[in-house]
Design a protein that fits this description.
Blueprint lengths: L1 E5 L4 H12 L3 E6 L17 E4 L5 H7 L5 E4 L13 H20 L5 E7 L22 H20 L2 E7 L1 E3 L7 H11 L3 E4 L6 E2 L1 E3 H14 L4 E6 L5 E2 H12 L5 E4 L21 H4 L9 H16 L6
Parallel strand pairs: 1-2, 1-4, 2-3, 4-5, 5-6, 6-11, 7-10, 8-13
Antiparallel strand pairs: 9-12
């Protein structure tokens, strides 16, 4: 089976490409390399087809989708914070790009489109853990762009007859990650190993999932989905606070007497406007088809920290 992965040179996309190749799929990657890297694909670069192109360019997408049966649409601006992803960027990179891909899908022989959405579509959910049928109410531009993309995919799938699988991802961490809280903390400590700025009040509680568990969930979800449109929550079954993450990172580095400087946050201690302060997904639907995470949030954070440390600074200095 031939698959196309948009954004396949990014963090999650490159892990997905490696796994699918090992499973015997014929893999094609479309990426404009704005946030992804060919280094992420170095282990399989000679075994897959790479196309440098942009999902906002319909000709790039139409060329890439030829002879493809399954499209994994991962290309997007990955930043949740408003100052890193303004509304116009979110619209172009997330919603408009999804529209262009969908237009190509409906004109092709693609049978299934899989899409990486986000837990941010739920906003400040009152029900924790939050199930897939909970009414989404995003509180960030990023979350709204993901929900809008979901809606477009659902409508196209029902209208044009292909199947769609939507994954609402928790915070995914692991090797090759170049944004998010662990990478951010390591970068800050590299600049100043005696003080660590922490956005918010440190009490934000969220679920973190190791990338290998995420990829296994995506592939199993694709194989087991039996409805026209299937939605799966993908996350761990526990939570960890931002302060606890900081303590893990500092501990792994062996640093002593690090001062934690909390910014205080906005709207009750959030890290930024639109930050969901308490997030835990109900993953019983995925578990019912045979998936469960191998690592919990703490283990995922520890393993990610250990992997990223050498990439952030010279450990012999500390």
């Amino acid at each position: 089976m031939k698959v196309l992965i948009t954004g396949g040179a990014g963090f999650i996309g490159s892990h997905l490409a490696e796994k699918l190749f090992k499973l015997g799929y014929e893999v094609r990657v479309l990426d404009n390399l704005s946030s992804g890297s060919l280094e992420n694909l170095s282990q399989i670069m000679d075994e897959i087809e790479f196309v440098k192109g942009d999902c906002k360019n319909r000709w790039n997408v139409l060329d890439s989708i030829k002879d493809v049966e399954v499209v994994f649409h991962l290309a997007a601006n990955p930043e949740v914070r408003l100052e890193l992803c303004d509304p116009e960027t979110c619209f172009r990179e997330n919603i408009y790009a999804t529209h262009v891909v969908l237009e190509a899908v409906r004109k092709s022989d693609v049978k299934v489109m899989a899409f990486t959405s986000s837990s941010t579509v739920y906003g400040d959910a009152k029900l924790i853990p939050t199930p897939e049928d909970y009414p989404p109410e995003p509180i960030s531009i990023y979350g709204s762009s993901k929900l809008a993309s979901e809606s477009l995919i659902m409508a196209y799938a029902h209208t044009y007859g292909f199947r769609a699988v939507i994954y609402r991802l928790a915070n995914i961490v692991g090797p090759k990650s170049r944004h998010g809280v662990v990478y951010d903390f390591l970068q800050k400590l590299q600049r100043n190993p005696s003080k660590l700025e922490i956005l918010g009040d440190g009490t934000q509680r969220k679920s973190y999932l190791y990338v290998d568990d995420c990829i296994n969930a995506m592939i199993l979800g694709l194989q087991k989905a039996n409805r026209q449109v299937e939605v799966f929550n993908v996350g761990s079954e526990d939570q960890i606070t931002v302060r606890e993450i900081a303590e893990i990172v500092v501990g792994k580095l062996g640093l002593k007497n690090v001062e934690f400087k909390f910014t205080g946050g906005v709207n009750g201690g959030r890290g930024w406007k639109g930050d969901v302060k308490n997030m835990l997904l109900d993953i019983s639907k995925l578990k019912s088809i045979g998936w469960k995470p191998n690592l919990n949030s703490v283990e995922a954070i520890k393993r990610t920290t250990e992997y990223l440390m050498p990439y952030c600074f010279n450990l012999e200095t500390y």
